[in-house]
From TrEMBL:
InterPro entries, A to Z: DgoD-like (IPR034593), Dipeptide_epimerase (IPR034603), Enolase-like_C_sf (IPR036849), Enolase-like_N (IPR029017), Enolase_C-like (IPR029065), Mandelate_racemase_C (IPR013342), Mandelate_racemase_N_dom (IPR013341)
SUPFAM superfamilies tied to this protein: Enolase C-terminal domain-like, Enolase N-terminal domain-like
Name the record gives this protein: Dipeptide epimerase
Chain residues that bind Mg(2+): 175, 201, 224
This protein's record includes keyword Metal-binding: yes
Enzyme Commission code: 5.1.1.-
Domain of life from the UniProt record: Bacteria
Record-stated family: Belongs to the mandelate racemase/muconate lactonizing enzyme family.
Species of provenance: Rhizobium tubonense
GO terms for MF: metal ion binding; racemase and epimerase activity, acting on amino acids and derivatives
């Protein structure tokens, strides 16, 4: 029986406003790919990222361009060659994983050799703002064991100190989203170390991060925008201690699994992260993150409305997906 591909653009409201160094948004705009065969439907979600030139329309166009190949039985391995890494390939790849699980009756976790997937502690994101506002957010969520704090200006010392004071017991990750100028890098890393920050994500712009290999790093530094796929890893060993794998960057779970294995072989610590999306986007990432050092899969916690059914969250614990959702 031939396959059928359905593509939809969906919008989910965010609780309040989500702000990083590059801007703010109030909705999560996603593309949902559904592949139907033999009465079964596999689903995948992606979040187009303007930082990489993606939009809802461009992602839909990428999937439409390969619709014929998908509907005639394109495999996931062939997909790696047929589409470039990015959001569009992620939606198709995850839909194929889900469809395979439903058609065979074997869960994705089982196919990956995960016999008993565990709930994971996810970071909770504190949006960027003035120090007092960020401290207020951190105080509200100070009971959470792991906070991810958005920074990314030339003067983040007050933000770092304010958040640490408001959440003295939480583990903190800073995410600068390429926003630190070189002339404050060493100072900000030192302030972060003094505040007991566990890790800093992408302090310098991708492609202009060589300075990280020339300084003594007092805490772990994690690549995000600098790393998309497996082939990027080897060149980053002198400047990063960890990498952030996001399915929307790697172009799906298939490539992300290879990427994680190679990153571990090279000695990187692994974070599994996300864009602001729904539980459908997080579900495959929860399985990918089962042995990751850092987990940042709080997308649905930032939404005013999630998919139904969605992932189960209890405080900062995110539980593996049920087959009713994905996989």
């Amino acid at each position: 029986m031939p396959l059928h591909v359905d593509i939809q653009m969906n919008s989910f409201p965010i609780l309040g406003t989500f702000t990083i160094s590059r801007g703010s948004k109030t909705t999560a705009e996603v593309v949902t790919c559904t592949i139907v065969a033999d009465g079964w439907a596999g689903h995948g979600e992606c979040v187009p990222y303007r930082r990489y030139g993606e939009s809802l329309e461009s992602v839909v166009a990428e999937i439409e361009a390969i619709r014929g190949s998908i509907e005639t039985g394109l495999s996931r391995s062939d997909l790696l060659e047929a589409m470039k890494p990015g959001a569009a390939r992620n939606a198709v790849d995850c839909a194929l994983w889900d469809l395979e699980a439903k058609r065979t009756g074997m869960s994705v976790a089982s196919r990956l050799g995960i016999t008993d997937p565990k709930p994971l502690t996810t970071a909770y994101t504190i949006s960027m703002g003035e120090p007092e506002a960020m401290a207020s957010q951190a105080r509200e969520h100070a009971h959470r064991p792991l906070l991810k704090v958005k920074v990314g200006t030339g003067d983040d010392e007050s933000r770092i100190r304010a958040v640490r004071s408001a959440a003295p017991d939480a583990m903190i990750i800073l995410d600068a989203n390429e926003g630190w100028p070189e002339d404050v890098l060493v100072h900000h890393l030192q302030i972060a170390a003094e505040a007991g920050v566990a890790l800093v994500e992408q302090p310098l712009p991708a492609g202009r991060d060589a300075m990280l290999g020339e300084i003594k790093r007092p805490i772990l530094v994690c690549a995000d925008e600098s790393v998309h796929q497996t082939g990027d890893l080897a060149a980053l060993r002198d400047r990063y201690d960890a990498i952030n794998i996001k399915l929307d960057k790697s172009g799906g779970l298939t490539e992300a699994l290879v990427m994680k294995k190679e990153a571990q072989r090279l000695g990187f610590q692994v974070m599994v992260g996300c864009m602001v999306g729904t539980s459908l986007a997080m579900a495959p990432a929860v399985l990918l993150a089962q042995d990751a050092e850092f987990v940042d899969l709080d997308g649905p916690l930032l939404l005013a409305r999630d998919r139904d059914p969605g992932l189960r969250y209890e405080a900062s614990l995110v539980f593996p997906p049920t087959t009713a959702l994905w996989g």
